[in-house]
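Today's session is about reading a structure prediction critically. Students often jump straight to the picture, but the first step is always the sequence itself: look for stretches that repeat, for charged clusters, for runs of hydrophobic residues. Only then move on to the predicted structure, which in these notes is written as discrete structure tokens rather than atom positions. Here is the chain we will use throughout the hour.
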Amino acid sequence: MVKIVTEQSAQKYIELLVDGKIETEEMNEVFAQIEKRIAEWGDVLVLEEVRDIGQVEFGAFWKDLRFGLKNMGSFPRVAVVTDISWVQKITKLADPMFTADIRVFSLAEKEVAKNWLLQGNVQQEQHEAHP
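Below is the predicted structure for this chain, in token form.
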């Protein structure tokens, strides 16, 4: 399952939950919603909580890859929150390939991750207001 659990338009923030099997239809719905937010908000801050990853349908994997490449510049910061060691390692390895600042946090650090995302947004707004 993959779904959007929280959206905060004022902060341009979306929180995703991944827990179990990931199906193509779910990915289509989530990505359609994120694309709407990109169109409305511009940049989007993403917190992705990964509790468990079961089977991933090939169509969902392919959709994820294409979506990420297409929208790479729309995500200035991404927090991946998980205790799954291989997800942590892959995320850290992939970080240099993306323009986003991607950080990995444990499940216990979820609030720290959210604060990191949103604090950076506040700093950006302050900078834009007082160049």
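Discussion point for the tutorial: The chain has four helices and five strands.
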